[in-house]
Amino acid sequence: MRSLEDDLELARSLEPSELADAIESIGFECTRCGACCTSHDGDPHTATVFPDEVRALLAADVDSPTDGSGNGPPEDDSSSGSTATVREWRDVARPMPYGLREIEDESEPDGGGIDSDDATSATRLEGETFEWALQTDACGDCVFYAEDEAGVGACLAHEDRPLICRTYPFSVVLGDDESTALGQPMGETVDEEGVVRAHECEGLGRDISREDAETLARTLKERAIRELEEAIAVRDGYQPVDPGSGEVVVHDSEGAKRIDGTVREK
């Protein structure tokens, strides 16, 4: 079995022109349908976001996202005379739900549990998990997704969106090994060309310019490298913790954190 370091070298050796050939062959044009940004069959939208990407979204000059934290919408910083939107970590990111368990919410959680997306209001989540997901609203949609009066979707943080959003609906496999498919987005694989995999999206099969295919290919390679660098950092820095009752601990490349993004003291 190859190591993460071996896969990282394979990712660094990916040839953008070959990735662009594959993307151009499959074809893609975003129709702004919003399917990749919204909930599906009752499951909330789940897209991985890394710590520096969260900070970029916190600093981004975007319209106020819809509230997903349960703490009310972000407010203007009127005390400083600024009209810039004040956002907190939990306005942008939530713990990746995988590995967390549901508990009955009988009292105030110790360390900050979170409400389950698909459970009753008396149920909360606790435990350890790895990485962050973009925050969602009460409907399970990404908080940065919005539609105009005609129902056309748009990302409020388009220029600062995470790598997985920039490269949807594509992913890559390394060394012709399907088990090494990196950061696969939501949706089944429906097409492939070389090491490139295409996932469910109504925009597939449409014409794409060579320039756009090359831009997407470079970003896809960047994402493959970044995901492996992040995985290595998480592995090397991981230290088991014993979460308190109702507490959620998130392990990312910067260590163990609380749900507000602050470092959890040992």
From TrEMBL:
Where composition is biased (Basic and acidic residues), the residues are 249-266
Task: Give the region (Disordered) as residue ranges.
Answer: 62-120, 237-266
InterPro entries, sorted: Puta_zinc/iron-chelating_dom
Q: Per its record, how is this protein called by name?
A: YkgJ family cysteine cluster protein
